[in-house]
Amino acid sequence: MILSFIILSYNQSSEIKKLINSIMTSNIPIEHYEIIISDDCSEIFHLEKLKQISNINILTENYNTKNQSMLRNKGIHISKNEYIYFIDGDDYLNSIELFNIYNKCLNLNTYLIFIPAFHEHSLFCTNITEDNFNNKYIINRPMDYGICSYVINREFIINNKLFFDEVTYNWIAEDAYFFYKLIMNTKSYTFDVNYNPVYIHKYYEN
Q: Quick check: 34 and 5 in contact, CB under 8 A?
């Protein structure tokens, strides 16, 4: 299999159904991906709704840990596929563009694949390209380093022990710290140059 989707969940059954539907309608062969829901002790109503979805693996906690790093690490350890894509449960994917990313995973030998992300109700689309990455990307951070902006080779994570920090960065900025660890250790990366968003970030007003 090629792709493991690791999705964080907490009382988001309706949103996750939409997300999973965007994966299942992407034309990626079902035998080439797995969906792992790492749930942080959602209410019974939401868990029962998730259990009605076929072909997914649900990891549950006995209490609300509020530790996204731990939830993602558990997903890494049980995942089986060559590449991992971390997604937040309240966001969704562009099915057509997701299939293009799948083809890159299928045909390229690389550690990281950077992909565009669109932020709802905002005026910008995050496009990580080779030009703006090499232009002091890490220092100036002109684009998004969020966890949903790239697909990662699982073996690369395991062999270099590049797991999420469950103590210091367990809830806030855990994805930023994880990203810097990846960049410091990676030897190869590639970019989706279509500039059409794959990941759509849901926007909530305070």
A: yes
